[in-house]
Amino acid sequence: MGVNETITTIVGTVISKVNERQTTDGVNLARFRVRSTERRYDNQTGQWGDGEQLFVNVTCWKRLADGVVASLAMGDPVVVTGRLYTRSYEAEGQAKFSVELTAVSVGPDLTRCVATLARNRRQADRPDSTPLDTARAAEGLDASVDADSSAAAEAGSGTARHAARQTAAEVAA
């Protein structure tokens, strides 16, 4: 990040398909669009209502792009952090602009969903696979973590979270 960049976090919903591609240099890139809708409480009616909306084009690079492609779909609630800026362009003879965000972090909004985590192993640990391969193979890791977590929770021997962490560490070792 540079000096005087606008770093922000946006909480919203993925409203487009996650598009993936590679640059000519072979760098992975993912793009999607997020809508963030302000919620306001009306004291007179005692009801919550929608306020203004913000639409942002999000770009993710490298390992973040791999994780986003493997994890997100249209309609998913997300929290996105990155560098916010506007892009000017001309369309049909008119000057236009769009709000853009180059993401440094993307995750699920756990106030609106539940997520199952599958950790990616570093490439140095598995030189024969890419982060995307690891993310796609994560179902096997998820199954063992879920099974051991459920067994630990049923047996009452500690929390399911501790068991899941321990199982993930054993699998990674």
Structural descriptors:
about 170 residues; alpha+beta; OB fold (Dihydrolipoamide Acetyltransferase, E2P); 2 domains
Brief account:
The protein is α+β, with helices and mostly antiparallel strands and 173 residues long. The protein contains four helices and six strands.
Task: Summarize the structure in words.
By secondary structure, the chain is an alpha+beta fold. The protein folds into two domains: 1-113, Beta Barrel (OB fold (Dihydrolipoamide Acetyltransferase, E2P)), CATH 2.40.50.140; 116-173, no CATH class. The chain has four helices and six strands, in the order E-E-E-E-H-E-E-H-H-H. It has helices at residues 62-71, 131-136, 138-155, 160-172; strands at residues 6-14, 19-22, 28-42, 47-61, 77-91, 94-108. Strands 1-3-4-6-5 form a five-stranded mixed barrel.
Outline the fold blueprint.
Layout: E1 6-14, E2 19-22, E3 28-42, E4 47-61, H1 62-71, E5 77-91, E6 94-108, H2 131-136, H3 138-155, H4 160-172
Parallel strand pairs: 4-6
Antiparallel strand pairs: 1-3, 1-5, 2-3, 3-4, 5-6
Helix pairs in contact: 3-4
CATH superfamily of the largest domain: Nucleic acid-binding proteins
Number of helical regions: 4
Overall pLDDT confidence: 79
| Proportion in helices | 25-40%
- The low-confidence parts are 139-173
Calculate the terminal CA-CA distance, rounded to whole Å. 33 Å
Number of strands: 6
Q: By helix and strand content, what is the structural category? A: alpha+beta
The largest pleated sheet is described as:
5 strands, mixed, barrel
Rg for CA atoms:
20 Å
| Named CATH topology of the largest domain | OB fold (Dihydrolipoamide Acetyltransferase, E2P)
- Examine the secondary-structure arrangement and name the CATH architecture of the largest domain: Beta Barrel
Overall 3D shape: globular
CATH class of the largest domain: Mainly Beta
Q: What proportion strand?
A: 35-45%
List SSEs in N-to-C order: EEEEHEEHHH
